[in-house]
Amino acid sequence: MRYAIEGGTIVTPDDILRNKKIIVNNDVIEDITENAAGVDYTLKLEDSSLIFPGLINAHDHLLGTYYPRIGFGPYLNWLPWDNDLKECPLYEERSAISNFDLYLLGSYRNIVSGVTTVSDHIPHSVNAPFIDKLPMRVLWDYGMQHECVSFDLRWGGSMSDEHKYALDNDLPFLTHIEEGYDEEATLGIEILQEMKVLDDHSVLVHGISLSKQDITAIAKAKANVVWCPTSNYFMFKDTTNIRELLKQNVNVSLGTDSPMSGGMNLLEEMQFAVNLYWQLYKEKLDYKTLVQMVTTHPAKAFRQKKLGKIEVGYTADFTILKNGNPSDPYESLIQSWLENIRLVISGGVPLYGVAGDKDFFGKFEKEYQILKISGEDRLLIGQPENLYERIWENVKFKKVLPFLPVDIYE
Ligand SMILES: [Zn+2]
Fold first, then answer.
1. Could you tell me whether strands 376-381 and 9-11 are parallel, antiparallel, or unpaired per DSSP bridges?
2. Strand order in the sheet with 202-206
């Protein structure tokens, strides 16, 4: 299908475009123009709508999609947190839900907050059976290692094999790094250097104990960093040296981590990032930079050459806000909550929107259900209602997860 998106302000996100229409041809942005003649359908937006590229959540563990958070930190490193998690009754409650349903729940948690692409930090053997069946884009190919410490969870093959796989196939090499303060954790960057796996394919998550020299080494190697402030602060009452990373022009992306340690969703994560930055440095984190941390920066880190921007030839992924402020769209995104997400489109196909867009959704051969989310009727792809029913049957009560706040129906 070939359709036009008309009205609102386009945030590419490097530039702000007004009075332009986006022409979508199947899954691609065909044109950004003033003339939209001859399209099959025109989606008309209100003037206060803001059109961003589909947001990218640079770090999640979809299998860990549950709530509330668990932890009795601050911890020395991630291992005692992992032990606390696995021993708590909530973990048992979560385990009553099938892995596929946790993946579905994780997808919906991301979609309703405007995320169209997520990086799921887990070995291929776990997520490979699910990825094709999920309602959103989960990055499916990468080299990976849990973390380069002797007590890591042995995810993936050997560090050098996984890194070589990434290099040979133009893929990212993902690893947690320095998530703690013990001697081994603080040597993370030195270990990567020694093993010759620190380069522009490396995507390093957390980095709580990164020193200034570590950051210089990361910058020199053009490696990428993923910042998960909520999760870091919850587990360690601390986070990475984000100001120094930005000062040294490291490509930093933002990630939520799982909601059992991290942010409710990427929207909350952005707000927390702003607040924590202020608390740490008494300086304002630049809003445009923060928006780039959920669009262009992760696209670069994960080597996704057609994602993260609204530009001709790019994949038609959009996160559209309602009631935004066109004179400061970056601030509008950062201050948004679930009710501000008007429409989420991935590969040209709507995933989530307001009930008033039923006609538009009807043009696609997909299944949608109408749910009341935060008091408003919403269209959501797939069968989210059935998912909640299965979860309730499994956990034996009507659990509602706050990151997918459906109004309970009898
Ligand atoms: Zn993680």
1. unpaired
2. 143-147, 173-177, 202-206, 224-227, 251-254
pLDDT in the model for residue 158: 86
CA of 173 to the centre of ligand 1 (A): 14
Alpha carbon of 369 to ligand 1 centroid (Å): 31
**Alpha-carbon distance 314 to 52, whole Å?**
13
Q: DSSP assignment of 239-307, as one string?
A: ---HHHHHHTT-EEEE----TTTS-SSHHHHHHHHHHHHHHHHSSPPPHHHHHHTTTHHHHHHTT-TTS
Q: Is the pLDDT of residue 200 over 80?
A: yes
Residue 175, pLDDT above cutoff 90 = yes
How confident is the model at residue 148, as a pLDDT?
Answer: 75
The strand pairing partners of 173, in sequence order, are: 143, 202
Q: What number is the average pLDDT over the span 269-294? A: 98
C-alpha 265 – ligand 1 centre gap (Å):
14
Distance 262 CA to ligand 1 centre (A): 9
Average pLDDT of span 119-125: 93
Question: How far apart, in Å, are the Cα atoms of 23 and each of 44, 79, 221, 258, 365?
Answer: 12, 49, 38, 35, 20
Q: How far is the CA of 149 from the centre of ligand 1 (A)?
A: 14
In angstroms, what is the span from residue 400 Cα to ligand 1's centroid?
24
User: Percentage of the chain with pLDDT > 90?
Assistant: 91
**pLDDT band, very low/low/confident/very high, at 22 (cuts 50, 70, 90):** very high
Ligand 1 centroid to 397 CA: how many Å? 29
Quote the CA–CA distance of 121 and 127 in Å, as a whole number: 9
- Report the chain's mean pLDDT, rounded to a whole number: 95
- With vertex at residue 205, the alpha carbon angle to CA 180 and CA 169, rounded to the nearest 5 degrees, is 140
Q: Which CATH superfamily is domain 55-301 in?
A: Metal-dependent hydrolases (3.20.20.140)
pLDDT above 60: residue 410: no
- Distance (Å, rounded) from C-alpha 101 to C-alpha 106? 8
Map out the domains of the chain as residue ranges: 2-54+311-366, 55-301
pLDDT of residue 409: 63
CATH architecture of 2-54+311-366: Roll (2.30)
